[in-house]
Amino acid sequence: MNQLKRTVLYDVHVKYGAKLIDFGGWEMPVNFTKIIDEHHAVRKKAGLFDVSHMGKVNITGSEASAYLEKIFTNDISKLENGQAVYGFMCYENGGVVDDLLIYKKDISSYMLVINASNIDKDITWLKDQLKEFNVKLENITDECAEIAIQGPLAEAILQRYTKYDLSKIRFFRFKSEILINDELFLVSRTGYTGEDGFEIYGKPENIKKLWVNLLEKENELFPIGLGARDTLRFEASLPLYGHEISKDITPLEAGFGFFVNLNKSFIGKEALEKQKSEGLKRKLVGFELLDKGIPREGYEVTISGEKIGIVTTGYHSPTLGKSIGLALIDAEYASIGKEIEINIRNKPKKARVISKRFLNKKYKK
Asked: Helices 35-44 and 226-235 sit at what angle, rounded to 10 degrees?
């Protein structure tokens, strides 16, 4: 049995009483207190997340931009230095290798942030596409730790530790070298919760010191585990690889066509163009449960006993106070207001298709 990998914050998590689980080969905190309390803390105050397990890859060289255009669905050409962009790497059939962020430092230097469970697979795939480009690929996951501070108080809290005016960092922008507690960090206004906040990258020892310092001094900042991270991203209708997107679910089926630029060439373009022109056969929809129960991943979606799809994520929403979910279903049943059934423990429960915009995101544009 392979030993689980640990982030630089592992011993701190143990000290704070975290419940640890195997997540993509990493031993990570699923919660420190109650998941619902951590969820509300981020929505109402601020939360601190260990996301050092996320993969970080540097792409450098004279053909870095051309290489990334080939392997990425979104547009790289319009990126400014200090700007980040979200999108997908796709297989030739349009299925998703991974969803990721790309940070542009300059025309020949980029950083990719990829999913922890996909690191080895992604890097193998990225290297396979390198052959015709003058590009260097470097996996810096172990040398670059990452934490996220998210919530309505995030900016005010972090501002107390730096002289740099954080309000200057707009949404999906970053500053490569900011002094926080006299150490240098890359700080981006990005996150995975639907709240305003920042993701902070730095040397592992500096990230550890910052984490400890913040939690020791801030009474309205709380450590948050993967449990609340998932309920928060779900309420914000943000996808999780292996659920809403996968090698078998394309970005178009998942409703993320905004991040797919079919006016440029990239791996998987032809398949996605064909899918769009022929019409989607499946669509990702939001739904609310009308009967009592909690929908879970993998539950069948039916109409009059006939299977029409499957739940990709489902919870009793802590913020909305009702059971909601995302489901990939046959496109003909995907209209808002359509009544469907969710099979919970083999019993059909009434549900209704609703907008995937479960709540208004609070990003600071």
From this structure: 50
CATH number among 3.30.450.20, 3.40.50.1370, 3.40.50.300, 3.30.1360.120, domain 10-52+143-235: 3.30.1360.120
Regarding pTM above 0.90, the answer is: yes
pLDDT at 364 over 90: no
Number of H helices, E strands in the chain: 8, 19
**How many residues are there in the chain?**
365
The fold of 281-354 is Elongation Factor Tu (Ef-tu); domain 3 (2.40.30)
**Residue 292 pLDDT level (bands cut at 50, 70, 90):** very high
Q: How do residues 152-170 score in pLDDT, each as one tens digit? A: 999 999 999 999 999 999 9
**CATH architecture for the domain at 55-139:** 2-Layer Sandwich (3.30)
How far are the Cα atoms of 126, 268, 283, 335, 361 from residue 339, in angstroms, in the given order?
42, 34, 15, 9, 26
Alpha-carbon distance values, 101 to 128, 132, 301 (Å): 20, 23, 32
pLDDT of residue 365: 76
> What one-letter code names the amino acid at 138?
E
